[in-house]
Structures are given as C-alpha cells and as structure tokens.
Amino acid sequence: MKTTAISVNHLRKYGENMKIETYENDEAVSKRAAELVEAIITNHQQPVLGLATGSTPLGLYQRLIEKYQANQLSFENVITYNLDEYLGLAKTHPESYHAYMDKNLFSHVNINPKNIHMPDNDANRKQEIVDDYNQALAKHPIDLQILGIGENAHIGFNEPGTPFDQKTFIVELDEQTRQSNARFFDSIDEVPSEAITMGIKQIMAAKQIVLIATGDNKAEAIKKTIKGPVTEDVPASILKTHPNCIILLDKAAAKYV
Ligand code: F6R
Questions:
Q1: Nearest C-alpha to atom 3 of ligand 1 is from which residue?
Q2: What mean pLDDT comes out for the span 25-37?
Q3: Is 13 left (phi over 0), alpha (psi -120 to 50) or beta?
C-alpha cells in the first residue's frame, strides 16, 4: 500500500495557513491520521483529543485500536471530547453517537470512562445540556481536533449559516444532512431532526485540527472549503484561518483541488 502523500500543498495567502495532503486511498489517509493522533498521545502527559463520528474516522479508530492491542499506544491519560450527538435518541440506540464511540473505539482501549466527554442529548433539558457541555469544554483545551466534513461543508453539526463565534448549541439539522445520514437508519423518518454540537468557536480553539475527507461525495465541499472565500455559508472555510490545520484527502475527495 502506498502511504506517502501523492501531493502536499500549503495555502499561505492573505493570512491563510492550511496544509493539504492527498493520499491514494482511504486506508492511507487513516494511517496518516493515526500517526498524527499517536504523536499527540505520546508527546503529552494529559493528551486532549476532540473526536468525530460518522464513516470517515472509522479507519482511524481501527488503527488506534490495533496500536493499543499491540502495546504501542496507551489511552490511560487521554481525555476526549466528542463533537456532537443527536437529540432525543436513547444513548443505547445503535445510531446514537454514544453507542458509536463505544463500539468503534472506547470499549476496545484502556481509556478511563471519567475522561470521556460527550454532549448529553436530553431533549427536555436543552439549555442545561448546552451549558454543561460548554462548562466541560472549558476545563481542558483540545490538543488535536479530528473533523469529518458534510456534503454541505458542515463541521460537527455546524450547518451552513452558523456564526463562526458560536459555542455549543442545539441545531436543527439540514435536510441534506438528514438525507445523507439516513443510510444509517431504517428510514429518513427515523433520523433525528435536532442535534447538539460543539460550536465553531470551540472547534477553532483546538491547538491543532485534522480534517479528513474521503470519497467523491466530499469533492465539492472540499473545493468550496479550499478554493472559495471564508464564509459562514461554507462552515469548513473558517479552517483556513486556523494556525495549525491539516486536511487529509483521498484522490476522490481531492478531485477539484
Ligand atoms: C460527526 C460529525 C459530522 C461528520 C460529517 C461527515 O461527529 O461531526 O460533521 O463528520 O457529517 O460524516 P461522514 O464521515 O459519515 O461522511
């Protein structure tokens, strides 16, 4: 497997600072993402990771589990914050992000459950769960934030139009987001219409950001993010103003850049 980057580009225009690395395929992207996470875990006494769910980081989590199983990585001191969670879905529901994280990472590694932070999703306590997550996030600055990207260029569940200075909030999901996430549910009617998400301000406060995008369906969002203006209509475009952001792409997602 080819794991070196096919190309590495820097955007360094008008205060932009973004590194774009393109790889042959999803597997090579996941390997690179795992190396970046591993570097943070080994170089910090109390590493703080921001985590995403969805299809994109599955290969990354699998590699981290393998490293742990091979005694090459310990999660003993790792603190995590997840980006988001559907509202009103039982945490035990297989498509809840609580269940996803348990199944795809937490239950396989030696992370201390006390160090795991996920937004609560009680639809009857909206203000409290928002306040609680803002408070939790204020405790530990995030060393490395992992992001996927929506087809509409959302990051976390910050849909187009979300103010860049937004902190944790309850969001009404875009129809496009519900459509694309319907693949995980029996029907679109079962996809929750609301979610709680970390805001763009908190994502941007991470010391380093690694956004991963793979597949054709992300090519347009990646083009707008990298080549277009910084605008709230394209939430991921703000990442160009972050001091330390790396975008990892496979060839399909890099089609237009
Ligand atoms: C998930 C999240 C979302 C996803 C995005 C891409 O926690 O915050 O922004 O990263 O919707 O999802 P996938 O990877 O399933 O294409």
A1: 156
A2: 98
A3: beta
Contacts of 257 (CB under 8 A, 6+ apart): 9, 20, 22, 222, 223, 226, 227, 249
Distance CA 124, CA 209 (A): 32
**Distance of alpha carbon 144 from alpha carbon 48, whole angstroms:** 7
Residue 197 CA: nearest ligand 1 atom is 8
115-137 per-residue burial string, b: 16 or more CB within 10 A, e: under 16: bbbbbbbeeeeeeebbebbbeeb
Residue nearest atom 4 of ligand 1, based on CA coordinates: 148
pLDDT in tens, 128-172: 999 999 999 999 999 999 999 999 999 999 999 999 999 999 999
